[in-house]
Amino acid sequence: MAEAHQAVGFRPALTSDGAEADLSASVLQEIYLSGLRSWKRHLSRFWNDFLTGVFPASPLSWLFLFSAIQLAWFLQLDPSLGLTEKIKELLPDWGGQHHRLRGVLAAALFASCLWGALIFTLHVALRLLLSYHGWLLEPHGAMSSPTKTWLALVRIFSGRHPMLFSYQRSLPRQPVPSVQDTVRKYLESVRPVLSDEDFDGTAGLAQEFLRLQASLLQWYLQLKSWWASNYVSDWWEEFVYLRSRNSLMVNSNYYMMDFLYVTPTPVQAARAGNAVHALLLYRHRLNRQEILPVRGPPRGQRPWGCVGPWGQFPSQGLLQTLLMGMRPLCSAQYEKIFNTTRVPGVRKDHLRHLRDSRHVAVFHRGRFFRVGTHSPSGLLSPRALEQQFQRILDDPSPACPHEEHLAALTAAPRHVPRQGPVGAGAGALKSRAGEALEAVEGAAFFVSLDSEPAGLTREDPAASLDAYAHALLAGRGHDRWYDKSFTLIVFSNGKLGLSVEHSWADCPVSGHMWEFTLATECFQLGYSVDGHCKGRPEPALPRPQRLHWDLPDKIHLSISLALRGAKTLSGDTDCHVFPFSHFGKSFIKRCHLSSDSFIQMALQLAHFRDRGHFCLTYESAMTRLFLEGRTETVRSCTREACNFVRAMEDRETTDSQCLSLFRLAVDKHQALLKAAMSGQGVDRHLFALHIVSQLLHLQAPFLDQVHSEQWQLATSQIPVQQTHLFDVHNYPDYVSSGGGFGPVDDHGYGVSYIFMGMTRSPSTFPAKNQAQKRPDSRPDLPPSPGFGPQPSGPQTPAPLQGPRSRLPLDATRSSFQDSHRLGQHIEDALLDVASLFQEGQRLKRGCRGLGEEEAGNRRGSLPCH
C-alpha cells in the first residue's frame, strides 16, 4: 500500500452552480514539492546510470576531446581524416550564416562517436585485465612480474571515483570449467568419505557420464555462458531457492547479531528509531550509488555464501594488501536489499522488487502497523521515528482473532499458503485483506518489536547467548515476516538483530549494510543522556496506521497448521554460541598460516571427535570476481585433512609429524579455495550440468547421485568488511558476535565463526555458532536444497588409539547431534592444533592447567555492559 498518511488539502465545495474545487495554497505547494521530488529522483537515476555507463571515462573527457578537435581545426589540422567533413555534408543546409554552426555540430558528432569508441575500448581492455587470476596463485608474500604489470594496468584503466555499479560492464563472465577436470576433482573430494566399494561404483558412473552425456551437456553450458551474464547464477537462484518448497525459517534464512558486550540504549523505541533511520540512510546512498564498490578481497576476511554456509577469501599477506582497492567485485546483488518480498507460488516463488517505498511494516504483540518514514521535507528524524515506535508500544489495543499468528504462514512450507487441505488460503487473504497485505509486502523492510529481552547476561552468559541466537534464527514462529528481504528485530531491552531471506543475495551484501547500520546508529546518530534519540519529537506527526486483516474462515486452519509446524521446527533446532578467548587471529598470523585454513582443520578434528567419522564439509567461496557471480563450494574434507586428523588422534605420532601433515592440509585447502574463487570449482558446474540434463529429459545417473547426496557439516567465517567504521582498539567492546544459519542436512551441523577485531591481544575472539536439527525433525518435508555428496555406504573407520584432547573419545562420540558437545570439541581442537607450535604449547598449558570448574567460570565471566 503506497497511499500517504496525510490527507491533502483538496476538498469539494458545493455551491448553487455545482461542484467546485477549492485548491488551497498548501495543496499546490504539496503538488509542487511532490513533482519536484519525483523529477529529482528520475534525473538523479538517469545521471547516475549515465555516469556508470561511461565509466572509467567522465563527461569532462568528452569536453576535453571536443575542445581538442576544435583546437586542431583552428590550427588547420584534421584529426578526423576527413570524417568531419562527410558528417557536415550530411547535415541540413541552413544557409550561409549557419555554416560555422554546422561545423561545430559535425565536430561534436565526431567527438561523440570517437568518445563512445574509446569508452568501449576501455571496457574491453578492463574486462580482459580482470580476467587474469594469476595473482591468486602467487606464493605467500611474493609477487611475480606479470602480476606487477597487471596491477599497474588495472590501476591505469580502473578510473577514479567509481560509483557502486561502475564496474559492472567491465567484469568478465564466469568461465565454464572443463568437465573432465570437474569430475576428477569431484572423485578426489569424495574419496575420503566413501568405502572402496562405493567409490568404485561412483567412479564407474562418472566414467559412463563422461563417455555418454558430458559433451552434450557441456555444449549447452558453453552456449549459455556466451549468451547469458552468468552460466549458473540465475539457475542457482531459481532451483535452489525459489523452487524449494521448504520452510524459509531455519532452512534458508540466516541471522546477524548486535554488539556482543554493549547495548547503546535500553530504550526499545529509541534503538528502533536510530536503526531504521540508519537503514534508510543506507538505502538513500544505495539509490544514489554513493556506496563505493567493493574492490579486492578483504584482507584475512571471507564473506558469507549461500544455502547456509558462507564464502571466504584467502589471506595473501603483502599481495593481498596491494590488491585491496584494485580488483572490483560484482555489485548486482545490492539492487534488491530494500523494497523486496519473496512471494510464494504453487511451484516456485518470485521476487517482487519495488522501485521505492516510503514506509516500514511493524509487528508488535500480534498487531501489524504501517509507519511512514518520510515527511514532505524528507526522511523522518530518528527522534520522530522513535516517537512513532513508542506510540505502537503504548497502544493498548488487542490483536484480532488469528491476526497474532498470521505471520506463521511465511514460516510454513512454501506450498501451504496457496494450496493444501484448506484451499487457496493466501489467494483468499489477498482478496479479503489486500490492502493490509500490500502494506507489508510493499514496505521497505519489516520491523519486529519483540516483547522479550535478549542478549548476553552476566547471570548466565552461555544460556543467554544461545537463547539470543535461537530467537534470531527461529523466533516464536509467528513474529517474523520471513518473506521480506530482511526483518529488523528490536528486543525489549534495546538489543538488535537481523533475520535475512537468502534468495535475493548472499550475506556479504546484507553484512555490508548491517555494519553501516550499527556504526551509524551508535557512533554518528548517537543517543542522549537519558537513552533517547537526539533531536525533538514531532507531536503533529500522524499516528502509525493499524493494519486490519479481514481473514476468511478457511485460512484459520492454515494459520494453525503453519504455527504448529513452525514451533516444531523451532523446538528441533539447537543453537549454541560461545566466545573463544584463549588466542586470536594474531597468533595464527605469527604462525604464517591462513586463519581460515587453521579453523577449517580444527573443525575437521572436532567433528571427527564428535561423530567418529569424516563427512563432506561445505565451505562457500564467493565468485563475485565475475559478473553476477554468487558462490562456489570449497570441499574442506580432503585426504590431506583426514590424514592430519588421524595423526592427531594417534598417540604414536609426534608433534612434528602432525605439524608436517597439518601444513600439507592447509596448502591443499588454500589451493581448493583459490580454484573456487577463480571459477574452477566443482559443485556449481555439476549443478548446472544437472539442470541441463533435467531440461533435456536426459538420464544421467552420475549427476542424479551427486544431486541426491547431502552435507553433514556446513561451515563459514563471518566477514568484517568495513573495519574503518569500528575502532576496536579504543572501543574493544563494540564488536559483533557475528551470526549464524541452520544446517543444510537434518543430521548435521552448521558452524559459523568470526574474528572480532584485529589480532594483537586475547581480546580477539573466534565465536562459534552451531545450529543443529535432531534426526527426527521435519519428517514431512523433503531434504534441504543442498547440492553435494553424502556417504552412501559405510563410513571410513578410524583405527586409532586415543585422542590428544583432554576429553575421553569414547565418552564424547555419538551418532546424534549436540551443539554444546560439538562446541567443546571445537575449543579443544583449536587448542590442540595451536599446541603444535611453540607459542601454542604455552597457551595450552595455561588453559589446561585450570580445572573444569574454573575453566567454566572463566567462560561464564564475560564482561557485560
From TrEMBL:
Boundaries of every Carnitine O-palmitoyltransferase N-terminal domain copy: 1-47
Record InterPro entries: Carn_acyl_trans, CAT-like_dom_sf, Cho/carn_acyl_trans, Cho/carn_acyl_trans_2, CPT_N
Catalytic site positions: H502 (proton acceptor)
Keywords: Acyltransferase, Fatty acid metabolism, Lipid metabolism, Membrane, Transferase, Transmembrane, Transmembrane helix
Transmembrane segments: 50-75, 104-126
Biased composition (Pro residues): 780-797
Region: Disordered, residue numbers: 764-816
Keyword Magnesium: no
Cellular component, GO, one term: membrane
Record Pfam families: Carn_acyltransf, CPT_N
PROSITE patterns, alphabetized: ACYLTRANSF_C_1, ACYLTRANSF_C_2
Membrane-protein topology: Multi-pass membrane protein
GO terms classed as biological process: carnitine metabolic process; fatty acid metabolic process
Domain Choline/carnitine acyltransferase: 175-756
Gene Ontology molecular function terms on file: carnitine O-palmitoyltransferase activity
Record's subcellular location: Membrane
The keyword Lipid metabolism belongs to this UniProt entry's keyword annotation: yes
Principal location: membrane
PANTHER family membership: CARNITINE O-ACYLTRANSFERASE, CARNITINE O-PALMITOYLTRANSFERASE 1, BRAIN ISOFORM
UniProt similarity note: Belongs to the carnitine/choline acetyltransferase family.
Record protein name field: Carnitine O-palmitoyltransferase
Taxonomic classification: Eukaryota, Metazoa, Chordata, Craniata, Vertebrata
